UniProtKB/TrEMBL annotation:
<dbReference type="InterPro" id="IPR011251">
    <property type="entry name" value="Luciferase-like_dom"/>
</dbReference>
<keyword id="KW-0503">Monooxygenase</keyword>
<dbReference type="Pfam" id="PF00296">
    <property type="entry name" value="Bac_luciferase"/>
</dbReference>
<keyword id="KW-0560">Oxidoreductase</keyword>
<feature type="domain" description="Luciferase-like">
    <location>
        <begin position="15"/>
        <end position="294"/>
    </location>
</feature>
<dbReference type="InterPro" id="IPR036661">
    <property type="entry name" value="Luciferase-like_sf"/>
</dbReference>
<dbReference type="GO" id="GO:0046306">
    <property type="term" value="P:alkanesulfonate catabolic process"/>
</dbReference>
<dbReference type="GO" id="GO:0008726">
    <property type="term" value="F:alkanesulfonate monooxygenase activity"/>
</dbReference>
<keyword id="KW-0288">FMN</keyword>
<keyword id="KW-0285">Flavoprotein</keyword>
<protein>
    <submittedName>
        <fullName>Alkanesulfonate monooxygenase</fullName>
        <ecNumber>1.14.14.5</ecNumber>
    </submittedName>
</protein>
<dbReference type="InterPro" id="IPR050172">
    <property type="entry name" value="SsuD_RutA_monooxygenase"/>
</dbReference>
Length: 328
């Protein structure tokens, strides 16, 4: 079981995001044995949100070993050549540590911001990922598509990783799972995917045929996470800022199919999270491994949580939880 740390790049007006805090967290996660630092993407967030790809490059410069992942970039709004070239350079700068995770996107205002349309998102996504993959692996690419035309395009330098960096994709409906199996190398769940639904979703994802250039079929479960000496201490640190995040998500995700899941009681949230004492967290992670998860990405710091509390949780996972998993 590998762990990822989902880093908070957004905040409210009283708590603007600071990449210095992110660097401190990621360096600690690297020392603690986490496999990845994972960044998400937000646009039109007035209090402030650091751009994901340049933030990933910044974190690459301040770390040595930890994997650098996105979960995920809104592929349909980007020009494929820009996306392929920029992400390839992150892989070069980091010495081959990139995992590129994508999503379809759902907010109409984000598509409008980039001059695209939500109704085109599936076709744009598939054309984008096809071209990113080809630009990463082929000496020269010519393509006449619905949205992009290329004539003898190439990247120099190409990614360090051979044959290419791994691709992740999010989504939960059958079409998204089939697309992920066909075009990517790993499926990332949403943070609010119900535990009861996970075994069926994992089995469905693994049942779809892999694409010709697939590098595998990883299952990455995204979860809220906080580890403390006791369950009560974990809840005391996490509950208030997490409720604030979920309240904000109620408006943010109003156009998403899973918006209602952000209006649940604490017990419902805790039931699909990795929160509690070291023993409880290790047990929960072991249950995800038994379901078929290859890794779990933990979001330990909602906006409003003090940096010191976030660092304590990261250290606890490294010191008290990961050794239990290795022993098991």
């Amino acid at each position: 079981m590998r762990l990822g740390l989902y880093v908070n790049l957004y905040a409210d007006k009283a708590d603007r995001p600071r990449l210095a805090d992110a660097v401190e967290q990621v360096r600690l996660a690297e020392q603690a044995g986490f496999a990845w630092v994972v960044l998400g993407e937000r646009h039109l967030h007035r209090p402030g949100y650091h751009e994901a790809v340049t933030s990933l490059a910044y974190l690459a410069a301040h770390t040595e070993r930890i994997g650098l992942a996105t979960a995920g970039l809104i592929a349909p709004v980007y020009h494929p050549v820009w996306l392929a070239e920029t992400l390839a350079h992150v892989d070069v700068l980091s010495g081959g540590r990139l995992t590129a995770g994508f999503v379809l996107g759902y907010r109409p205002e984000e598509f409008t911001l980039y001059g695209t349309h939500p109704r085109e998102r599936v076709a744009r996504f598939e054309e984008c990922l096809e071209l990113v993959t080809r630009l990463w692996t082929e000496d020269e690419v010519s393509h006449e598509g619905r949205f992009t035309s290329l004539d003898g395009a190439f990247l120099s330098p190409r990614p360090v990783q051979s044959p290419r960096p791994r691709l992740w994709n999010g989504g939960r409906v059958p079409a998204a799972l089939e697309r992920t199996a066909r075009m990517c190398d790993g499926w990332t769940t949403s943070f609010n995917e119900l535990d009861a639904d996970l075994p069926g979703k994992i089995a469905e994802y693994l049942s779809y045929p892999r694409g010709a250039g697939s590098l595998g079929a990883e299952v990455i479960v995204c979860r809220e996470g906080y580890c403390a000496p006791t369950t009560q201490a974990a809840r005391a640190a996490l509950e208030e800022p997490l409720r604030g995040l979920y309240d904000a998500y109620g408006g943010w995700k109003r156009t998403s199919q899973d918006a209602a899941r952000y209006a649940q009681e604490w017990d419902d949230i805790a039931a699909r999270s990795v929160i509690g004492s070291p023993g409880e967290c290790a047990d929960r992670l072991g249950r995800y491994a038994a379901m078929g998860a290859d890794g779990v990405v933990l979001r330990v710091q909602p906006p409003g949580m003090p940096q010191a509390d976030a660092l304590r949780a990261i250290e606890a996972y490294g010191t008290d939880v990961l050794p239990r998993l290795r022993a098991a």
